Amino acid sequence: MTRGNVMVGQSGGPTSVINASLVGVFKTAKDEGCKTVYGMRNGIEGLLEERYIDISDYIKNDLDIELLKRTPSSFLGTCRFKLPKAEKAPELYERIFEILNKLEVKYFFYIGGNDSMDTIMQLSEFARKIDSDIRFMGVPKTIDNDLACTDHTPGFGSAAKYIASTMKEIIRDAKTYPNDSVTIVEIMGRNAGWLTASSALSRSEDCDGPDLIYLPEVVFDHNKFLEQIKEKKKTQKAVIVAVSEGIKTADGKYVCEANKNTTLVDSFGHKALGGTALYLSDYLTDELGIKCRGIVLATLQRCASHLVSRRDITEAFMAGADAVQAALRGETGKMIIFKRLSNNPYSIITDVMDIREIANKEKCVPLEWITEGGTYVSDEFDTYARPLIIGELSPFMVDGLPRHLFIDK
Amino acid sequence: MTRGNVMVGQSGGPTSVINASLVGVFKTAKDEGCKTVYGMRNGIEGLLEERYIDISDYIKNDLDIELLKRTPSSFLGTCRFKLPKAEKAPELYERIFEILNKLEVKYFFYIGGNDSMDTIMQLSEFARKIDSDIRFMGVPKTIDNDLACTDHTPGFGSAAKYIASTMKEIIRDAKTYPNDSVTIVEIMGRNAGWLTASSALSRSEDCDGPDLIYLPEVVFDHNKFLEQIKEKKKTQKAVIVAVSEGIKTADGKYVCEANKNTTLVDSFGHKALGGTALYLSDYLTDELGIKCRGIVLATLQRCASHLVSRRDITEAFMAGADAVQAALRGETGKMIIFKRLSNNPYSIITDVMDIREIANKEKCVPLEWITEGGTYVSDEFDTYARPLIIGELSPFMVDGLPRHLFIDK
Known about the structure:
homodimer
């Protein structure tokens, strides 16, 4: 059976498993008889410039598929392009549909986070208006795990595994010195603390985990912070703290804004964060006079494909594959979600959800999971997150380094 | 055959393979008939407080040995204690020999870098003076690769592998955006640029490597730097730069000192570095008005035991094992060195070298290996360093995370 063509894109910040979703879309579409699977370069921004590839030119065999699963960052290139509403820029929409029609595209997939789901929402609504039969499906992707309606998002498990593993190594490193010290590890997360909370997964038989965890869900108070550090220092030499880059004081200001003159803002209106750990490290050095070190995990959290969660890879593929199946069934304007059936044994199924329930919304860590006066997370968090970091996928090592599949070097 | 007891310690900054050397000392000493292998907690500083363990209480079987090889940071704890010269503090030396004699220690091993080798030098000279038959051997250890007389040091290969792998992932991440950007990756290295140079190993069939590399061996010039970035920007959107934390301007000042009021100094007189990438990132943002990001690999370079070089692990073990064999032969006041016999196939042997040739000296990257006006390294560097990152040692994963052996959690 021959079907229409497919257009797939990747948008927003990359993850270690975003290419597994791309592979899921590609392989399933081909298996189901779609003729050409196009990949837009740099998301909708590149599509508008008619920059796209035929993915078959790059994935030629099963080895390429496995290699792409092990390749970090967005294979097709990404963008941070905010598609204006159709009534404000109808020419953009007309242009997109013109290109899609020319290429005989019937199925459109966008792998992204909540901002990208807005694009799927706008395009599917426009399709309805102009009576186009092109189907638009969202494939969830974000290390931040902040998408509404889904148990979790592909990308989160691998980032959590990287953060917890690295945190174990950092803790072991920090505690080997006999001197007084505070190590502050800055973890991504603008408003949702899922990633920072994941540092608690390092708590295991061979590691006490970080001593204090500060999430953006809780108002940050400098005095309380200082008292909490002092309290820990009473019984231990080295104190290790996990902080979210997005922690804010009671006035709503990001802590990292305190020592900056200017703050960059991206096209979605998000402020560029960063500097929280260094700021707090300087603050503690001033207040306590002991050695403090700030460590920023930075983009490594989202691109360390050498240390992914096998379960996350499998689920990311599944999200892409099931988005194709849903589109072939006739679904549009929806996103694939995960529903958890059980924790022990861990079991999930996918479903589809109206994109309007998801786009532009954020899911935060439940306040009842935040314990110890806002400085730790509960066992419920562990039960929720632990299954997502299980299993490994060995990188393909060539000349001592992980090998990647690429379009441009 | 029963021999005297052994005392072993770890000193200075940890590495991912420092425990493989400890295992090499322990296993060889036991195999050769030494009765008790004591481990000093926190190096010579802990020994002076009579803090030590019987390592057999922690390594009970071959699984423990394999687990310890996969454990980052110094298992025994480390210190940054500078042993004063014997004429200035004879009581410290008398105390150390009193403790060693009480424990019937005949062989003393110190796993460390150039500062730690000074300790071996002082102790072996004191032993000669008081006619003690205790033998003192140094086991090389430093990610910095800056020890004299040895082809390379255990710890460097794994740090280089981590840096090159991470650099590949960072480059892929940075280049996925269609926007103009400069990413500055800060790598450890006070005066020697070996680690920063290792970022060039990321250059391979699937990766162009960093665009510019700045080593501490070359005087840093702000204007040249700006011109070099502008030149790269002419032909590419995303520019990726590797900088050593230790780069200095013509007046001998560290670049990272430019935006600091105070600089901490440790007991060896080393200034605390850090902040170079952020400073340069801010500088470029001001000058060019484009998005610049600083990424600091920080202590992850020395503790990421989940991504070690198998060859480095093997050689670190061998350095410990051969130090024991040398001490049993009667050597003292020496350090194990590596001599490279050939690159293809890669082959080394160990030898011993008088510690006075090594202590307190630093080996830098040869200037003839630094190319492109001080912004890259030559093929000779690749030929030298590539063999050292070959091979992997899979971590033992438990509940999704690498498992470690520990004394204190």
